[in-house]
Specification:
Distance between the termini: 31 Å
Helix content: 40-55%
Largest sheet: 7 strands, parallel
CATH class of the largest domain: Alpha Beta
CATH architecture of the largest domain: 3-Layer(aba) Sandwich
CATH topology of the largest domain: Rossmann fold
Number of strands: 15
Oligomer: single chain
Strand order of the largest sheet: 5-4-3-6-7-8-9
Shape: elongated
Radius of gyration: 22 Å
Length: 461
């Protein structure tokens, strides 16, 4: 499977960091997020700061000079682009989240074959390029307090793009990295002009957004702000003092596909369960919802799923991660723990979806399940896209807005429920009893939600 396309490099950084910039991923086997075909040679190119290893935003003098020289050379190289829109899309975070991968892939798929749009993904200097379903162009940017570099970078962006949009996801309100988001918003304000449109694709505002972030959003009325649910839209209006455009999440438009051996194996297992007349529940326990939980709280989940499986030999569970980053952020460790605790008790009735997997693989697999318990919003979106109403374990007041689109807010439960064995088990039983009604509700509301998701692209000029 092709990955990011390489880009031309010049200047001191090419000599200084070639070993990092031209680092080649294996031509077969696993990439950070999936399988790469044997015919593709994948480079992780960089424009502004060529090193791919992570380090702080405090840039040494020598590196600052090299970056500045490279930026000046890049500005001189920018030529006239005859395409109507030169679109830069800023990725929301480093690789690992399948939700972020889904949103980036939707944008890539929408514009990569549009002759009127020249698309490039803007990736922070220290982040690894995510695997998407086809090659795509990357431009690196630096979130730094260095005024010289910032000014040069803003000039480069202004000359290169006619429109710059951020995939805001659930971090634009500063929930995870306030300092980075502040610098990003400052950059958008500085480069925005009548000749360069800036905006934020459908995103969430939590019930406790950072005040400095909301002040920065309020101070830039020219920034197009798209909220991915009415609840977030209302919170934005209350704190930023202006209205948001209401859309739905980009990931609703992700095309499902099975592309890895592990996904195909899981699909085969689901098929065998269906042939045996078993109901298949999918379980994703988020690293965010279990962060800080005691062993007793994890045991609550194990006991609840054991209780559900004991309810009949016609019940099966597939455990899967939807964030591949290391614990405590990601899901890989916790879902493996749940699976391992139950596997020997229910032979043949449990499956663990392992890497490599991609967002489109998971969305395809969830078309074959009967129910889902998840702590990840984009796992819930993948299920809802298939007409499956999920039971959601929430932690930041953002899930509720998603479920409001489907009038299914009652399926959201605070992560505190994981500390109460009876409450979690009762919630699971109640979810099961209302499955058909809730699935019908999800299916009935889906067309209008898909229409809202399409509106993300209505505002690009």
């Amino acid at each position: 499977m092709p990955g990011p396309a390489s880009s031309a490099m010049s200047g001191p950084l090419q000599r200084r960091h070639m070993a990092h910039a031209q680092r080649t991923l294996p031509t077969t086997g696993q990439s950070p997020l999936g399988t790469i075909s044997s015919t593709s040679q994948v480079f992780l190119p960089v424009r502004f700061l060529i090193t791919l290893n992570s380090f702080t935003d405090m840039i040494a003098v020598a590196d600052s000079q090299a970056i500045a020289m490279d930026l000046r050379a890049s500005i001189d190289e920018v030529g006239a682009d005859k395409k109507r829109v030169r679109l830069g899309v800023i990725a929301p975070a480093n690789h690992g989240s399948l939700g972020d991968q889904a949103m980036l892939e939707v944008v890539r798929a929408r514009f990569s074959k549009n002759d009127n749009v020249s698309l490039a993904t803007l990736l922070h200097r220290s982040w690894t390029a995510p695997l998407l379903r086809d090659r795509y162009r990357i431009k690196r940017f630096v979130a730094t307090g260095n005024k010289t570099i910032t000014a040069l970078q803003n000039r480069y962006i202004s000359k290169t793009f006619s429109s710059v949009w951020v995939i805001g996801a659930d971090n634009i309100d500063g929930a995870y990295n306030e300092e980075f988001i502040i610098r990003l918003l400052n950059m958008l304000k500085q480069v925005g002009s009548p000749a360069l449109q800036t905006g934020i694709f459908g995103c969430s505002i939590s019930n406790n957004p950072k005040k400095a972030i909301m002040a920065a959003l309020a101070a830039n009325p020219n920034l197009a702000f798209l909220a991915r649910d009415p609840l977030s839209g209302g919170r934005f209006a209350d704190t930023a003092g202006r209205s948001a455009h209401i859309v739905a999440d980009l990931a609703f438009m992700l095309a499902p596909a099975l592309t890895t051996p592990t996904a195909h194996a899981a699909q085969d297992w689901i098929g065998r369960q269906k042939a045996a007349n078993r109901r298949v529940m999918a379980v994703n326990s988020s690293g965010h919802t279990t962060a800080g939980q005691t062993e007793a709280a994890v045991k609550v989940q194990i006991d609840a799923y054991r209780h559900w499986l004991d309810g009949g030999a016609d019940r099966s569970i597939i455990f899967f991660p939807h964030d591949l980053r290391p614990s405590p952020i990601g899901d890989v460790e916790i879902v493996a723990l749940l699976y391992g605790a139950l596997r020997d008790e229910f032979p043949g009735r449990l499956w663990l979806l392992e890497q490599p997997i991609n967002a489109w693989d998971v969305k395809a697999l969830l078309s074959g399940i009967d129910s889902l318990v998840t702590g990840r919003m984009h796992a819930a979106i993948a299920a809802l896209s298939n007409g499956v109403a999920p039971m959601c374990v929430v932690y930041q007041g953002k899930f509720e807005g998603l479920m409001q689109h489907f009038q299914l807010e009652g399926l959201c439960h605070s992560r505190d429920i994981l500390s109460d064995g009876r409450a979690f088990r009762d919630a699971l039983d109640g979810y099961e009893k209302s499955l058909n009604q809730n699935h019908d509700q999800a299916a009935a509301r889906l067309p209008s939600v898909l229409t809202l998701a399409e509106k993300n692209f209505d505002f690009i000029q």
